[in-house]
Write a structure and sequence with these properties.
mainly beta; seven-stranded parallel sheet
Length: 179
Amino acid sequence: DKKNTWDLDDLLIALDVEANNVKFNSAVALDGNKVAKFDGCSFNETRDHYALWICAEKNKSVTIANSTFESAGRAIKVADQYVGDVTKVSINVSGTSFKSVSKAAVLVSSTAGADIVWGEGNDITEVAADPINAVWVDEDWADYADLVTVTGASKVIEGSADTNIVVVSNVDELKSAIS
């Protein structure tokens, strides 16, 4: 029995899609399609899930431009979970802002890796877990980290020393964070 993160009431997109100026008010899953383009879209996820789940299949190509992600959980995940024939995914992100509670802006959990182009104008300053590194490789897929290429941003393995980041705005907050 196949149980997906999108079994609840999320939007499953199984065909190639081009969305312009669309507001998604639940999580979106790309499963079964080869091409997805989002321009001027907002992804609003309020239930501690991924705002955009990308299945690592069909040499999928995803373009996200001039969009916003606001999630009570996480922003984007590239995953080989629930996928029979795992392939590398290509993602191009530009002019997009991210606000999420956990994980990096993009988390990759795929044995095929991913090619990510992090274009100009992206903002991850409101990614609570890591406002510095745009991409994490899931710690359970660390053996495949070399298959994840990131151009224009930094990538780290989840749970590594580089992901132990605390953001503070004054000395008192710093003292509290390190005590």
